[in-house]
Amino acid sequence: MRSGITLHRSPEHSMAKRVAVVGAGVSGLSSIKCCLDEDLEPTCFERSDDIGGLWKFTETSKDGMTRVYRSLVTNICKEMSCYSDFPFQEDYPNFMKHEKFWGYLQEFAEHFDLLKYIRFRTTVCSITKRPDFSETGQWDVVTETEGKQDRAVFDAVMVCSGRFLNPHLPLQSFPGIHKFKGQILHSQEYRIPEGFEGKRVLVIGLGNTGGDIAVELSRTAAQVFLSTRTGTWVNSRFLEGGYPFNMMVVRRCRNVIAQVLPSCVLKWIQERRMNKRFNHENYGLSITKGKKPKFIVNDELPTCILCGTVTMKTSVKEFTETSALFEDGTVEGNIDTVIFTTGYTFSFPFFEEPLRSLCTKKLFLYKQILPSNLERATLALIGFIGLKGSILSATELQARWATRVFKGLCNIPPSQKLMAEITKKEQLTERGMMKDTSEDKLDFISYLDDLAACIGAKPSVPFLFLKDPRLAWEVFFGPCTPYQYRLTGPGKWDGARNAILTQWDRTMKPLKTRFVPDSSKPVSMSHYLKAWGASVLLASLLLVFRSSPLLKLVRDKLQDRISPYLPVSIW
C-alpha cells in the first residue's frame, strides 16, 4: 500500500454493492438516485465545490473546467428535458437561462436527498481493475482531496464526467495559424461578450455554441464572421402556433411514419420544411454536398445574417498575421480574435490503457454505455452520447439500466461475443461493405425505447389504448416526454399519468401572464382532428401493421421507385 493512502475494503457480496460515481453534474445526480432506487450504495466524487457540472456558471475559466457562457439559454424545452419523476415547476419558462436550470438541479438533489452522497473538491486520480477483477468485477479508486490521497474498493463505477472535458483545438488543420498575431480562444474559455467591443471576430465552427457566440458578439463587435465547412439546418425554439419545437416534433406517431417512409422521401420533406421558414442557401447555411445533415437551435442567427452583423464564410484555408484566407478565395483582413467552437474530445485520464482508448470509441460501448472488452460488466459511462433530443432524459435511463445490470437483473451478452461482433463490424467498415454510423446522433425515441425495454419500462401503446384510451392518445400522438418511462416496470411512478395529462398545462402556464378578456376560445377537438386527421390515420395504420414483414418490402420498393423522380437538390 502506498504511503499516505487510506485503504477501505469492500463490504461482503451479501450486502448492498458500493458504487463510485464520478461527477455530480446532470448525469451524476441521476446516477446517484438510480443507485439508491436499486438499494446500492453510491459515493460521488466531484472535483468542484458544487453540483451541476458545466451548468454552474463562473465568471472566468481559470479553473480549467467547461462552464456555460453567461447568456446561454436551454435549447430543449422543460417538459422534454426533465427527470422523469420530477417535473419542472409549472411557472418555470419553457426555455430557461442557465441559472434557472441549475436551480432545478439543486431542487432535484435536495428533494431526493442526494447531496450527502457527494464528496466535493475531490478529484479522481485513477480507476484500475483489482487483481481478482475477472471474479469480483471490483475496482480500485484513488482520489485526492486537498492534497490528501485516499483509496477505496468499489463493486462498480459510473463515470459521469461528461463529454466536455477536453477541448478540441485543431490548430494543425489551419496553415499559418501560428503566424496570426491576434487572440486565439476555444469556446471553453468564452464567458461574456465584454472585451470584444469594436473588434473583428472570426468564429470557426457552426454548432449550437458557435451560433450562440456569433449572435451574442454581433451586438458588441465591429463585425462577426462565422466559418463553417458543412453548413447546418437552423431550427427555431418554436414552430407554427408558437408551441415548443421539441414537443411538436418528438412524437411516437411521427417516429413510426419515419421508420416506414423511404429515407429519400424523409429527406425531401425535411428540406421543404426547413426552407419554409427561410431559404438556407440564400443565407449561406445550406448543407455542403456530400456532408451529413446537421441541426442547431438558434432563433436569432438568420436575423443577424439578414442585418449584416454576422457574415457567413466557408472554411478557412490559411491564416496570415492579421487576415484569414477562405476556401472560396475571399480574404477578410484586420481580424482581432479567432474563436474555435470546434467541440471536445472524450477524455478518461483516470483509466489505464487499453481501457482509456477503448472508452473513447463508441463502437466498443455496448448500448453506448458498457465497455465491451471487460470480463465483468461493472463499469458504465453515462452521458457520452450524441442524441437527437434531451441528453438528460437519456442519461437517466442509461443509469436505470446500468444499475440493474450491476445487480444482475439485466443480462448482457458475454464479452467475447461482443468483441467478436465489433471486430466483424470494423472489418466490414474498412472494406466499404458497411457504413460507419458509430458517430451519428441517435434517434431519441428509438434509443430510449431500447433501454426502457431492457428494464421493462417501455410503455405498450396498444395495451394503453385498451386500458386507458385518453392516456394512450397522449403517449402516441403527443410529445414523447420522459414521464412515459415511469408508467410501468421497475421505478414506476404513481404521478406519471397525471404528469403526461398535464404537460401542456405546465407548458402554457408561464405564457399566461397577461389576461385578455376577449381572447379567442381554445381550439376545438374537431379542429384539431381536421388539422391532424390524415397524419393520425396514417400513423394509426402504421402502428397496427408495423410488425409486418410486408412493411420492409413496401418501403424498399418505394425507395427504388421514388428516388429517380425526386429533385436532385435533396441529395
TrEMBL record:
Listed InterPro entries: FAD/NAD-bd_sf, Flavin_mOase, Flavin_mOase-like, Flavin_mOase_4, FMO-like
Family of this protein: Belongs to the FMO family.
Reaction equations catalysed: N,N-dimethylaniline + NADPH + O2 + H(+) = N,N-dimethylaniline N-oxide + NADP(+) + H2O
GO molecular function terms listed in the Swiss-Prot or TrEMBL record: flavin adenine dinucleotide binding; N,N-dimethylaniline monooxygenase activity; NADP binding
Pfam families, per database record: FMO-like
Alphabetical keyword list: Endoplasmic reticulum, FAD, Flavoprotein, Membrane, Microsome, Monooxygenase, NADP, Oxidoreductase, Transmembrane, Transmembrane helix
Membrane-protein topology: Single-pass membrane protein
Organism (species): Equus caballus
Enzyme Commission numbers on file: 1.-.-.-
PANTHER family associated with the record: DIMETHYLANILINE MONOOXYGENASE (PTHR23023)
Subcellular localization(s) per the UniProt record: Endoplasmic reticulum membrane; Microsome membrane
GO annotation, cellular component aspect: endoplasmic reticulum membrane
Gene Ontology biological process terms from the UniProt entry: energy homeostasis; negative regulation of fatty acid oxidation; xenobiotic catabolic process; xenobiotic metabolic process
Designated name of the protein: Flavin-containing monooxygenase
Biological role: This protein is involved in the oxidative metabolism of a variety of xenobiotics such as drugs and pesticides.
Cofactor: FAD
Gene behind this protein: FMO4
